[in-house]
Design goal:
The protein has 16 helices and 15 strands. It has two domains: 146 residues, Aspartate Aminotransferase, domain 1; 246 residues, Type I PLP-dependent aspartate aminotransferase-like (Major domain) (Aspartate Aminotransferase, domain 2). It is globular. A seven-stranded mixed β-sheet has the order 4-10-9-8-7-5-6, sandwiched between helices. Strands 11-12-15-14 form a four-stranded antiparallel β-sheet. A two-stranded parallel sheet has the order 1-13. Helix 7 runs parallel beside helix 8. By secondary structure, the chain is an alpha/beta fold. The structure holds D-serine. The site of D-serine (DSN) has 4 residues, from loops. The site of D-serine has 4 residues, from loops.
Length: 427
């Protein structure tokens, strides 16, 4: 019995969601469309198996085949990112970051991360997150022009003496200078954590510098530009040892500390279906085709940014070097929330977002964040980006006119019909 017969309510909603994904322009920069092989692995019998521990060292019997799956995922991650140790078990990005805190710090230790409102992430020290309550969080922000302020960061590090500096973002359209950031961390003896969740696929494709061999630890989700299933990995250098005694928090011990933080520190059994899907995605990411894909993401983002600039939009930092664009709507007649809603009606999915020094609050900020990873997965190129830039402009002009937005939605659907998504799928 399949889901359609067994649970018509859920089957109906999944089909509706499938149509939404097919017929809309998905521009949330942290979203993507996985391959059918990744979907297959994710929906596999891996979900039935408990396997606490690591390959060859499990607390359960019957792990010989899931051992094989996890070892392949680990090996592929190490090769792809150029590190000697990979933990592929974090359930997602926030738990991966939590594991790094747990591994390397004591509660109340000082951490320095980018404020969410300036492009960071909740787990980088936001006061209402575990990272800002269990630890002493000091937050850095961007310059007025939206770029990271390395000089101010160096000063802040000297004053605050953090044990860990976190660099990585959810809404930063430019590249990170890992060497300069490492110098800041080294100047105060702090660990440098590079959270590359948004840019992992770009790093693999060679269109963003890699922090491998520079940062002490890297965390990444697997479902953004990397185009895998929801999940995460922690990557570092060195080899884990398995001493029974307490392990000192030194750089040499990072792999052991990370593995222990995941289990028994934070998690129970790994999600083997998820691990299998990560392995499949990593194989895909090691191809030339994926490199071309990553390059096209950036070309598309630049083409879309250029078109938006031609229409008089203000972009934070004036443009983009990566997969995302942050629009400052202050010179337009609507807020971020209003723009998100109007674009939604027109079949274009983006999210409202704060911009640096935003005078408004996060539930109705001054900006919207959009990106090209999912559009690029559908095969769209610069020509489509220009058209989409025109449509965004149209939706922003006519944001109060529902009829006009519905008409726009029809044109959006006509375009998406030319780029089929999961043509044979139905629930
Ligand atoms: N929700 C992710 C994003 O959209 O960037 C971050 O966790």
């Amino acid at each position: 019995m399949n889901i359609h017969q067994q649970d018509p309510e859920i089957s109906h909603l999944l089909n509706q969601e499938l149509l939404r994904q097919r017929q809309g322009l998905e521009m949330i920069p942290s979203e993507n469309f996985v391959s059918e092989a990744v979907l297959e692995a994710l929906g596999s019998i891996g979900t039935n198996k408990y396997s606490e521990g690591y390959p060859g060292k499990r607390y359960y019997g019957g792990c010989e085949f899931v051992d094989g799956i996890e070892q392949i995922a680990i090996d592929r991650a190490k090769t792809l990112f150029g590190v000697t140790h990979a933990n592929v078990q974090p359930y997602s990005g926030s738990p991966a970051n939590l594991a790094v805190y747990f591994a390397l710090l004591n509660p109340s230790d000082t951490v320095m991360g980018m404020h969410l409102f300036y492009g960071g992430h909740m787990t980088h020290g936001l006061p209402v997150n575990f990272s800002g309550t269990l630890y002493h969080s000091v937050q850095y922000q961007t310059r007025k022009d939206g770029y990271l302020d390395l000089e101010a960061m160096a000063e802040q590090a000297k004053t605050e003496k953090p044990k860990m500096i976190i660099v990585g973002a959810t809404a930063y359209p430019r590249v990170f200078d890992w060497k300069a950031l490492k110098e800041i961390a080294d100047s105060v003896g702090a660990f440098l954590l590079a959270d590359i969740s948004h840019i992992a696929g770009l790093i693999v494709a060679g269109v963003h510098p890699s922090p491998a061999g520079i940062a002490d630890v890297m965390t990444t989700t697997t479902h953004k530009t990397l185009r895998g299933p929801r999940g995460a990995m922690i990557l570092c250098n060195g080899n884990p040892s398995t001493p029974l005694k307490t392990v000192e928090r030194t750089k040499e011990n990072i792999p052991t500390l990370i593995d222990r933080a995941i289990i028994p520190g934070l998690q129970g059994g790994p999600h083997n279906h998820q691990t299998a899907a990560i392995a499949v995605a990593l194989k895909e990411a090691s191809t030339q085709e994926f490199k071309t894909y990553g390059q096209q993401i950036v070309k598309n983002a630049k083409a879309l940014a250029d078109r938006l600039l031609e229409h008089g939009f203000t972009l934070v930092t004036g443009g983009t070097d990566n997969h995302l664009i942050l629009i400052d709507l202050n010179n337009k007649a609507l807020t971020g929330a209003q723009a998100e809603k109007a674009l939604d009606l027109a079949g274009m999915t983006v999210n409202k977002n704060t911009i640096p020094f935003d005078p408004r609050r996060p539930f109705d900020p001054s900006g919207i964040r959009l990106g090209t990873p999912a559009l690029t997965s559908r095969g769209m190129k610069e020509e489509e980006m220009k058209q989409i830039g025109d449509w965004i402009n149209e939706a922003v002009i006519y944001w109060k006119e529902e009829e006009k937005l519905r008409d726009l939605r029809k044109r959006v659907k006509d375009m998406t019909d030319q780029f089929p998504l999961y043509p044979n799928l139905q629930y």
